[in-house]
Amino acid sequence: MKKSIKDWFSEWDEDKINLTELTANQGNENLIKEEKKEHNISELVELKQKELSRAGKIYPVLAALLCVVIIYFMLMTVSGLPKFGQADNPTNNEVVERYVEKGMEETGAVNVVAGVILDYRAFDTLGESHVLFTAVIAVFTLLLADKEEKETIEEGQIMKQDNILRNTAIFIVPLTVLFGIYVILNGHLGPGGGFSGGAIIGAAFIIYAMAFGFSGIEKFLTLKTFRIIVLCALLFYSGAKCYSFFCGANELHSIFGPGTPGMILSSGLILPLNIAVGIVVACTMYGFYSIFKRGRI
Amino acid sequence: MLEFIWTNRIQCVSVILFAIGFSTLLLHRNLMKKIIGLNIMDTATYLFLTSIGMIEGRLAPIIQNGDTDVSKYVNPLPAGLVLTGIVVSVSVTAVMLALTIRLYKSYHTLNLDEIYLKAQEEQEEEP
Fold first, then answer.
1. N or C end of chain B, less CB within 10 A?
2. Domain closes at, from A49, A79, A109
């Protein structure tokens, strides 16, 4: 019944799927019944496909026509837009002026985008982290359920013997992790931040897991530690933002002041929040890979 | 009249990309291709949003040497919005892929028509 990812992709082309072939590979006795059923279905599918092939000639043409119509109307809309790249466009209004002129003074972040997303609009980013968290929960509930399939999937079965990948990974993984940490810590001083840096570290974990199997990463990242890490990071994020909302609304003095802009330990809560977000994103990226690859973390 | 195609070329490209993604979503019966189409639509939206914030000849919104003059930097707001959008689209893609894997495990096909037929069959068998 089970098929590797390779087989799965080879069946992408839906016209080439032959259901009877699928059942022929399953040498189980109690599948005869099922085979009958599937045979029935394959006849039905053939009928349906005949039906569809008649409509199928018109359908792509209609869809392409619809696509052209959509392009036409949207291009008409674009023709009404102001000229690209001009300073006096209506999008460059007083909100942006305020963010750029007062942003560094109020948040302490040299990178205005980081100041906007983690200070002025931090509620937005909090919701975004929760969307990611909810997605992780949804993927876990969908894919973790198969307990009997756990043992059948061997670790790193395809890539394990690959010497080129292994020797490249030895060089690349430490550098990638370092670069990811740099991007996270530099989020308020330059281009970067928690999401991009976390994605880079997650990519390093994935390369490591591809080259050396999952056992190396399991030493410090199991399902239990994954849950604890993600939960702690999100709780820290929520708590920190609650504190700054409380201070801001009651006009109290926050103990996390903006500091000297340009220093690494400045800009209040932006650096710790970036670290928390980075940890969540790194764990999540690796978690997605692991769970899609073998059904568990 | 048609000079907007050159002056607003990035927006034009993003609109065409959006339509390509949309027609991919419509045309194919394969679930993986539908997901790819949705991702193309996402990317087109981000391209459009970031192009809105661009001002020619200005720097990225990272304040240099303490100079907070607004006429030196591009619009930082669309970048923040796009960042939110990218994370949401990653989450949605992951959930869609997980659902597709579950569907494939129970119906052994990715074709939407066949899945529909098999599901109908199952429903008829149950009392």
1. C
2. A79
Give, in order, the Cα–Cα distances in Å from A73 to each of A68, A78, A86, B32: 9, 9, 24, 28
Indicate if the alpha-carbon torsion angle A201, A206, A210, A212 is positive or negative: positive
Between chains, do A135 and B92 touch, taking CB under 8 Å as contact?
yes
| Domain stop point among A79, A113, A144 | A79
Residue with tokens 């609304």: A249
Question: ipTM of the predicted structure?
Answer: 0.84
Chain B interface includes A125 (CB < 8 A): yes
Point out the residue among B51, B98, B109 whose CB comes nearest to the CB of A84: B51
Counting Cα atoms < 13 Å in the Cβ hemisphere of B76 gives 31
The tokens describing A186, both together, are: 């530099």
Q: Which CATH class is domain B4-125?
A: mainly alpha
Same domain? A239 vs A288: yes
Partner residue opposite A100 with nearest CB, options B11, B26, B70: B70
User: Is A131 close to B91, i.e. CB distance below 8 A?
Assistant: yes
Residue at A85 is within a domain: no
Residue A89 lies in a domain: no
Which residue range(s) make up the domain with A63?
5-79
Residues 197-256 of A with CB under 8 A from B: none
pTM, full prediction: 0.78
Flag if A142 and B102 touch (Cβ within 8 Å). yes
Nearest to A84 among B11, B90, B118 (CB): B11
Question: What is d(CA A146, CA A120) in angstroms, rounded to the nearest whole number?
Answer: 43
A26 and A132 fall within a common domain: no
